[in-house]
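Re: [help] complex structure
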Amino acid sequence: MSVDTASVPGQVADAGAEPDLETYLGNPHDPANPVSFPAVLAADERGELLAEGERALDGYGLNAEFVPRALGGRFDRADRLAQVLRAVFRRDTTLGVGYGVTTFIAATPVWTDGTAQQRRWMADLLLRHGKASAGYNELAHGTDFSRAELRARPAGDHYRVTGRKEMVGNLARADAVTLFARTDDRPGSRSHSHLLLDMAALPAEHRRHLRRYRTAGVRGVLLGGLEFTDCPVPSDAVVGEPGGAMETVLRAFQVTRGVLPGMAVGIVDTQLRTVLRFALDRRLYGLPVAELPHARTTLVDGFLDLLIGDCLATVVARALHLLPDQTSVYSAAVKYLVPKLLQEAAHRLSVVLGARSYLRDGPYGIFQKNLRDLLAATLTHASAAVCQATIIPQLPRLAQQGWRSSPPPPPALFRLGDPLPPLDFGALGLSARGVDSLTATLRGYLAEPGAQPAVARLCGLFTAELDRLAEACAELPPRDRTVIAGRRSFDLTDRYATVLAAAACLGVWRHQRDDPFLGDVPWLAAALSRLAGRLGLHPGTAPDGLERHLYTELLARHRDNRGFDLVNRRLAG
Amino acid sequence: MRYPAFALAEHLDHGLGDPRDPGRAASFARCVELDSREEFPAEICAELDRLGLPRWYVPTEYGGELRSYEELLHAVRILARRDLTVAIGHGKTYLGAVSAWVGATPEQARRVGAEVLAGSVISLALTEREHGSDLLAGEVSAVPAGDGYRVDGEKWLINNASRGDLVCVLARTEPAGGTRGFSLLLVDKRRLAPGTFRCLPKERTHGVRGADISGIAFTGAEVPAEALLGPAGAGPEIVLKSVQLTRTMCAAMSLGLADQALRLVLDFATAHRLYDRPLVDLPHANRTLTEAYVDLLIGEATSVLTARGIHATPDELSVTSAIAKYLVPTMMDRAIPRLGQVLGARALLTEDHADGLFQKIERDHRIVGIFDGNTLVNLNTLVNQFPGLVRGYRRGVADPGLTDTVDLARPLPDFDRSRLALLSRTGCSVVQQFPVAAAELLDLVEAGVAPPALAVQVETLADLIDGLHERMAAYRPSPRQVPAEAFALAGQYALAFAAAGCLHLWLRNRHRLAGGATGPLWADARWLRACLHRLIGQLRPAGVAGSAPDDDGEDYDRLLPDLRAQHREGRLFSLLPSRLAEAGTPPPDPPSETAGQPDEQPSRTAGAVTQPSEVVR
Amino acid sequence: MSGTIQDTSVDAIRSWLAGRIAFYLQRSVEEIDHDLPLVEIGLDSVYAMTLSGDVEERYDIEVEPTMAWDHPTVNALAGYLHGVLGSRG
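Output below.
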């Protein structure tokens, strides 16, 4: 994969080294940089994907991040993928979604179930900067794929496709479309198939592009619609078994849902940096805003939320490699909880930014764009309710066994620098079968002889919570174990996801002993206390100076221009 | 069954016509289009002028029709549910003029009243680029010069600064500043010498994109002595009292926006099917709807009590207006995005789903929490009064006006500006009389009149409110360095106010409101139970202790029929019967209503709007 | 439940399955049509997967979570499970 440096903003220092996207995108505040915040904001105002941004990502070869290494790409670690894309989301969510995620979602079913030839074709297409669209959505059915109506009827050596897909990213300019189509009129879960469409080869008279859908967030993303009328598609376009699309989706979307929240961490990383910049510059009642206790608490809480969200996102991404039989639950939990935490953090930060959070111009204009974009990223690719409904049917079994006695996870789950085995899409389980190794981390720590009392006390809050959750899940009336469950079950998934986040934080802390910040107790104690507070538990009073400690770290990272996430890396500019 | 305070709102809503009719100037489609073009809704504002709205900005003693702030509250609410840009763009004249009602000499106030009645646009200029809510850091100066003042400096983020004919400016009149160092000047832009002022370009905003949010810069602008509103140096005091009136009206904006958001989501949830059933029949989805409904009812109760308090207990407004301005926008900032979750990705569409209205509401609403004193400013106001609030609670202080405040059928006394105070000497009677109301409720339960479940709720609340006051008492004030925990306590106090207010409202109005369109809500106290359920849940940390294991929130489910009926029949989501433009032309007012209902009082306010509206200009 | 010896006749499996489905749908066992696709009875695709969990618990075997997708009626499922359990010995 060569990087074309001719038309891009940054310079890659060493052509032999892995190109670094953050450096590559350049200083976001430099008005001369074609992918600066001002340029990004201007494109948003025009409702366009920033063309220079797309060129830069072509130049960097972003698509290669989505292509498995075995097929010539750079995808070998889901956590790394999230971190690379985080650089894009930190700059412009619209590009992240409109250039990145859309293509990734379209390609994943092909990696999961495609033939060698289909995989090769998709890989080649992406590696030459082609665009792939994920043809799932029909507005009438939304998240309920099993009711999708677009039909593909077998007719000799091909299918004939009739129906429409709506609000699909990049549809109007896609080279390939992964199409979710009904291939059997009977209701049920074996009635749909994926068809991999080569758009250049489809007869134009059988398809019609619908007009673009405009949105308030990620305004530049090209959401289109496509109507097929008796459109012939060759039979070998089927991905996997005919009738197997639901199953493919349940595997492939574990990867996409598992990775997206880690990307979205980048949005709030920018929000926090923007508000911190304001709080340091602005004086109110004779003091810099950052010196006002409420503002400081909000900033530190935002930092903690970012760390918590990244812990869960990173651990779940690694679990896709290490615990693929359990990620049906974890990937839904992370897609549910992390965007929610991020959104709550962004809202609180907006209160500190005050009127500036409402202005589209000026030094903090990126904030209001990110507010809109974050909302869009949250609603994209499975809403909160869809994710929760995925977890609910698994709760009783988790409660019965998994939360009491599951094998501990391999340490590599938490050793952020450790290599990972290749992601085996076929190994992703459709059900966790009641096993939950991540929360076993909490019980494991309590059983350790050398456990630190302060940490153990906090962990005890979460294991006790798990016990209560287990009781509550065991008592769930039948209907509350299904997709038509009532609020009680949805609330249980929220609490469970919060416990998972606590376990992820604990695991990360235990295995980064060499990191002077992450290996130290204060951030963990603060993160666990925050999560306990979210559950209405009483974590006890914070030790004196905890907030100051975290604020000092936050400020130090800001002064060195480093990220606020686990990676803690140097940013461009 | 009528509720006369809705009369003006209904007059305006029906006058503007069915907002779903794209042929109307004030249709939703048109409002969304204006927003996307960032165009001021001038045509709709002119329509409101024709409907006579400016008369309700001017108190009767100064020549207008403003008698009841309860009525104005609902008018603002009904405009905001149609379009916040309109509510702000037009309503800002009230904001610009209110300082005159609060602080000017009667003669001055009459002059300002005449301007408003003549259709002049008046704007209020408090904030500056570098100082935001820190008004006493303001740098715009007014120096005595000749017979008047010379004004210099820039005001920024001012609604209607460019469109306004007059601007009410807070200016530093003592170089040293301080609480007596600022004065209010009503600057008539039409009379300023050319070149001595400049309107700043409109700022591009997240929501309310058509609004004229701009600024004005003065350079040696000379204004006459009579521009001074009230005594020199009284600026901060007049402003702090004026915002007690306007903050209540901000709560109305939140109510209106959330009402329409809920309406849109109900439209969708009744039509859309998921898992083979209408979305509205899925328990998780309809719980989201009933929760939003309960939030609206809580917000309405809080706002109505605050608005009635402007007449009946104005001495406590420093507390109650801060509560309303904090609580209602904050609740709706949460409720609206949650409703959006039910719509899914449709919530983002700017053209395709229901005129793209939902995303506009979501963006628009965020400004309500920001302007006219933001969340933190309001909570701070409460924190500063903790000692007085604790004292008042311990002594069970009750302002005699509380009865008029909570009994919707009682006529309200005229607003008396001399009773406005920067600090409440009597604390907050609604909260302080909670124990009395609770005792009354327990008696009703005992007598078999009120459902037993309410007794449990009220006893729980009593403990929570006691505990809250203990924590407030333990707080040691520090004026600048207010810790986050103190803000949290103030937020809880606002919830306690809402809970106490709901209880008072039910007790004092349950008989009269048991009939009529909203009767079912009142009959078995079902609205009260749901509201208290929600408020208890927020006052008490979530968690194991949060809800009994057998509590599945049936209190909310019982409201679903009421919610759906109000939606179907084109009514506001409300404790009180109303009729929106969607419901068609209202029947002419019957000459007399059944006795024993809220409008048995002399129906002064209702009479005023049923007269044919004169064109004012 | 696992560990106990279960009756693995087709009839026994069928009535147990119908009982589970009736439990989820909060209906009486008599209302469950053994030949109607589960989706039509009201068991959605995601929670048809829950059934496989119940099967694994009861009979102490591993089945595909998509079992109910491929054998979409009570009778089909019972027949399938009987085959699996029979071959186990």
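The longest strand of chain B covers residues 148-159.
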